[in-house]
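User: What would this chain look like folded?
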Amino acid sequence: MRAGGSGALAALRTPVGATSAALLVLLVATAVFAPMLWAERAAAVDTNALQEGASASHLFGTDTLGRDIFHRVLVATRLSLGLAVLATLLGVLTGVILGAAPTVLPPWAGRLVTSAVNIAVAFPGLLLALFFAVIFGIGTVGAVLAIGFAVAPGFARLTHTLTASVSGRGYIAAARVSGVGRLRILVRHVLPNIAEPLVINATIAAGSVLTAFAGLSFLGIGVQAPAYDWGRLLGEGLNRIYLSPWSALGPALAVIIAGLAFNLFGEAAAAAAGGRERVDHKAVPPEKSTVDSGGQASDGVLAVDNLRVSFPGPAGWVTPVRGLRFTVHSGEMIGVVGESGSGKSLTALAVSRLIESPGLVTADRLDFRGTPLLTRSERELRPLLGTSLAMVFQDPMTSFNPTQRIGRQLAEVAEVHHGQSRRAALELAVDRLESVRIPDAAKRARQYPHEFSGGMRQRAMIAMGLMGEPALVIADEPTTALDVTVQREVLRLLARIRAEHDAAILLISHDITVVAQTCDRVLVMYAGRIVEDLPAAELFTAARHPYTRALLAAVPDLDTDRDAPLAVIPGRPPEPGDLPPGCPFAQRCAGADEQCRTEEPALVQLGTGNRLACWHPGESEVDGRALENVTGGGAE
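Assistant: Here's the prediction, encoded as structure tokens.
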């Protein structure tokens, strides 16, 4: 259970986890000490104080025998918590046995157990508890067995799923090859690796079990007199709730607080475990780049110097974006191209401050309009990023709230960042929709995202960015999944925004010809870093990196032989957590030599506006093709 303990410690570092843990400590202390301190007072009969209401001497009033309900609630904590924990342990143990049974049983027996568990899971837990209560009889023991067996199917399903996910690992196969028995594999190799989620789910389930047990006692099926728990006290006080509300509200409040404490702590532990993958977070990745030595970032709308984006992994930090340096000036349009996984979108998210924990963004410099983004709080940056930076995502359908009208979502930007009234903000939203050529904008503003076509949603997303005065528009694959006509309209719209607002645009795309037609400069990314930086006008005539040239060669044109296979780049990009030594492209490059496979080239300045990271750059011509041959003409 060591994994579960580490999850609990991580949960204590969160506000919710710390608060719920404090409540649990208070409940345990009450369960331990209350019977010692107040058992006699809780049992004392006072015929002169029968059924009194709440007062200074009796906070929750008294019952039909004059016993103090407040002290009875405190004393009942031990039995209530004890029975809930006992029923939870029974359910978890039974569920683990049933869930792991198919691993050690013959196949036919395993299928039989799995089918029985699937049938049991289909029934509501309360219905199962009542069913088992009838079988085991009324009383404390019967209630524990009923609730324990009622929650067991859920844990059996969870255990079976987790066991199946672990059983395919290499160390399990190695143990089988070594002749280790099934039961030993289960105990030594499988169960320790699924302990953490089981412990976390057991903590969450304890709150539900506590509530269910109180429910059975309330119905008279659980704890019987003379013993009492919170559920029994609640049942006794409900008859007088209109005359003395606290006689019922007191026990109910105890059930609610205890249930919330278990559930919240379990949720906090689950969240902490989800953001942590057993990695040493103190081992922060190095901030100094060892490869990109040229082209220091200068002043501009966006200045990026040695940008790194890292995520924790099982073997340490993984850095999909490594040491980027570039600058975007006002009115400039820069294209970022590369295969999937090259780090293009992560770069855009890092610049927009959208990388969430446990991701880590570091940079020697990351300035937007002269303001450092990494050293300012989110509250300080909100007025700047909310008004001067526009983000156009690849799929606007997932960026718009499907339950709100388009106009309402656009207007919210003006209300929050500009302090405009609801009416004025909505009028501005309609105006912005008109500016991006959406017909009948007033009517469209009252429609929902699903009523827009793909191209209109993309234009509406651009209109949202225009609700402020954007100095930088980051367009992440804005034309993906759009037909050629709509793609052309979106690109024209971005060009018009650039011209009218003098806005800088960072265009991320897989389509290198689109970038060549619309951008001033091209950044070619591979394996998390920039491998070539050159003017777009020189892309088809002066590209020197083998990867850039391979991307260009893979673009068919009118002269392409239709009977020949399309040109492709052999192999696939390396995984961010498993980069080979030397140049990451060496394994796919026909011209790579020993130096390429052992030393990674730095990104060096070749001249005005050109940077290259290659030991053996190619010739200046790219298959003898000029720009107009490949793109079919210049950009409009």
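The chain has 24 helices and 13 strands. If you want, I can go into more detail on any region.
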